[in-house]
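sry for the spam today, last one i promise. struct tokens for design, 339 residues
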């Protein structure tokens, strides 16, 4: 089936394209390359043997987006990744985030409505839960006031999609990611943070390879066993596979409701120090890090209750933390070798 992947040259998008192609889907990517580069399609082809079609334009452009859907009204499903996602940057530039993340979504939904395209998988985030009152966190947990404009765009996007599903015959699945890390086993694609990484694992691997001097651990006075914050890290390939299952579920009319939400986490929480320990164990390296103050906006701990995704979606994360940290390291080494 023909699947549109917006943001398909990005970290999770590129891994999802590879898994879609493995399931014989025909993929077209739309990306404005604001956070990635066009040569990712060649890297995807190195893995899958198939170079996905790529159209480069900005989905906040109403006319270009409308024209795209008129030319591709045979799309069976959309997986929508394209969005800005840096929590800290969203606090500095809220209007950029609201315009980019919301206008692009509205233009896509309008294009679907005008061209009778039925199915969309939306890239959401566990950020919508804030600091959950109960752990593990299930899909019916209350949505908390967003801690950042980025998190707010995810909450608002879910609401926009819910209302659109009610008013049209569009079906939607929102996938709430926990913390995606790691890289494809080939080390041909992986996370490509531009500038100083915001996220923990790319900062760890860049410190270990010598790009960064020292990792700062943001606080060790949290109410957790070792004092550092806990997250549910999930391998990006496990995450990618869930997107293929979700879009196939829609295409094959397996949905129970025309708007469904699934948590994509492993159900295991790891602290920052535990992630560092895993990295040191699998690489045999000693990581240079220091404990500093907490980062504004960070929550103490979150991990998913994956039961609904496991039982209803028929998906379960398979890779453990050591495989995640080792794959991230192999990717960082490959980047250094190809400089
Ligand atoms: C993880 C843990 C930090 C960097 C965010 C978004 C989420 C998703 C993933 C987009 C925290 C600690 C981090 C560092 C550190 N984004 N840390 N030193 O904040 O849980 O989630 O990124 O999809 O929606 O909210 O991820 O990797 O930034 O932080 O100690 O240099 O590592 O305090 O406890 P986060 P993260």
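last one done:
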């Amino acid at each position: 089936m023909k699947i549109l992947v917006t943001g398909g040259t990005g970290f999770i998008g590129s891994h999802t394209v590879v898994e879609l192609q493995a399931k014989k889907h025909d993929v077209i990517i739309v990306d404005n390359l604001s956070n990635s580069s066009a040569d990712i399609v060649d890297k995807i082809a190195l893995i899958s043997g198939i170079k996905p079609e790529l159209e480069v334009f900005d989905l906040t452009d109403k006319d270009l987006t409308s024209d795209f859907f008129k030319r591709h009204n045979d799309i069976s499903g959309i997986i929508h990744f394209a969005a800005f996602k840096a929590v800290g940057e969203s606090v500095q530039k809220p209007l950029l985030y609201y315009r980019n993340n919301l206008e692009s979504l509205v233009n896509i939904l309008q294009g679907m409505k005008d061209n009778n395209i039925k199915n969309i998988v939306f890239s959401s985030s566990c950020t919508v839960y804030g600091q959950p009152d109960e752990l593990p966190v299930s899909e019916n947990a209350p949505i908390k006031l967003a801690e950042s404009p980025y998190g707010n765009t995810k909450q608002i996007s879910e609401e926009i999609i819910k209302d659109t599903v009610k008013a049209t015959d569009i079906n939607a699945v929102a996938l709430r990611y926990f913390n995606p890390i790691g890289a494809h086993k080939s080390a041909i694609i992986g996370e490509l943070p531009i500038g100083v990484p915001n996220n923990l694992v790319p900062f760890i691997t860049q410190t270990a390879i010598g790009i960064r001097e020292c990792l700062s651990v943001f606080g060790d006075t949290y109410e957790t066993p070792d004092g550092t914050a806990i997250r549910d890290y999930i391998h990006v390939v496990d995450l990618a596979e869930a997107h293929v299952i979700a879009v196939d579920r829609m295409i094959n009319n397996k949905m129970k409701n025309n708007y469904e939400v699934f948590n994509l986490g492993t159900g295991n929480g790891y602290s920052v120090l535990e992630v560092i320990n895993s990295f040191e164990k699998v690489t045999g390296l000693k990581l240079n890090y220091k404990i500093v103050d907490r980062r504004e906006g960070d929550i103490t701990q979150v991990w998913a209750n994956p039961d609904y995704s496991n039982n209803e979606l028929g998906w379960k994360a398979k890779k453990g933390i050591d495989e995640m940290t080792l794959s991230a390291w192999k990717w960082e080494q490959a980047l250094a070798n190809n400089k």
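The chain has two domains: 2-181+234-264, 200-230+267-337. ok im logging off now
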